[in-house]
């Protein structure tokens, strides 16, 4: 979860952005900002902010996790799991659900890029992601060891102190 390429699909508002801005979304290196929470994460582009031109006249409408809203100052925000239900900033693209954990868990300063994919690619990625999630319980193994098999047991600091059970006021 250190960043990388995030796959995106066009949103209902992608065409509000000029061709040059849409192309720039794929060629620009972004940095995950410290300004982030479960609602969204700011991504800072290398270079100039993104222009929204006439997009600021968008009427508030339903939004979804993964939408990339571009605020009036040109700052893109990727909406995350607990995003609001409606929004009025234009959305240049939508991060596919399979890639949302990567942006959510990327540390501040992580380098990110966006790449447009077809809806077919997005659906295939989602199916593969869900298959991986379904297989996780079968891949988990308990880590139970017999104390005799742990030669450095004292090095694990399993306790932080000792008490004989008596309480003394000092």
Tell me what the structure shows.
There is one protein chain. The protein is α+β, with helices and mostly antiparallel strands and 170 residues long. The protein has one domain: Cyclophilin-like (Cyclophilin). 21% of the residues lie in helices and 25% in strands. The protein has a 7-stranded mixed beta barrel with strand order 1-8-5-6-3-2-9. Strands 4-7 form a two-stranded antiparallel ribbon. The protein is elongated, with a radius of gyration of 23 Å. This is Urea amidolyase. GO terms for molecular function: ATP binding; hydrolase activity. Keywords: ATP-binding, Hydrolase, Nucleotide-binding. InterPro entries: CT_A_B, Cyclophilin-like_dom_sf, PxpC.
Brief summary of the model shown:
The chain is 21% helix and 25% strand.
Mean pLDDT: 89
Number of strands: 9
CATH class: Mainly Beta
Q: Give the class from helix and strand content and strand pairing.
A: alpha+beta
Our Rg estimate from Cα atoms comes to 23 Å
H/E topology pattern: EHEEEEEEEHEH
Give a quick account of the main beta sheet: strands, pairing sense, barrel closure: 7 strands, mixed, barrel
Under CATH, the homologous superfamily reads Cyclophilin-like
Task: Give the count of structural domains.
Answer: 1
Spatial strand order of the main sheet: 1-8-5-6-3-2-9
> Based on CA inertia axes, which overall geometry fits?
elongated
CATH architecture: Beta Barrel
Secondary structure: helix percent: 10-25%
What are the segments in which pLDDT stays under 50 over at least 5 consecutive residues?
none
Number of helices: 3
Sheet-strand content, in percent, reads 25-35%
Determine the N-to-C terminus distance.
Answer: 50 Å
CATH topology: Cyclophilin
């Amino acid at each position: 979860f250190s960043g990388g390429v995030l796959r995106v699909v066009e949103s209902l508002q992608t065409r509000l952005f000029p061709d040059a801005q849409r192309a720039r979304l794929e060629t620009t290196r972004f940095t995950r900002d410290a300004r982030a929470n479960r609602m969204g994460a700011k991504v800072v582009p290398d270079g100039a902010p993104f222009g929204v031109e006439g997009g600021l006249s968008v009427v508030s409408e339903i939004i979804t996790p993964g939408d990339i809203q571009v605020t009036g100052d040109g700052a893109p925000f990727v909406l995350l799991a607990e995003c609001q239900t409606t929004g009025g900033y234009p959305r240049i693209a939508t991060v596919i659900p399979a890639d949302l954990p990567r942006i959510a868990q990327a540390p501040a300063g992580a380098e990110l890029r966006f790449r447009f994919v077809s809806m077919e690619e997005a659906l295939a990625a989602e199916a593969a992601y869900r298959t991986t999630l379904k297989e996780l319980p079968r891949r988990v193994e308990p880590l139970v060891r017999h104390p005799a098999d742990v030669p450095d047991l004292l090095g694990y600091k399993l306790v932080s102190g000792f008490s004989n059970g008596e309480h003394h006021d000092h």
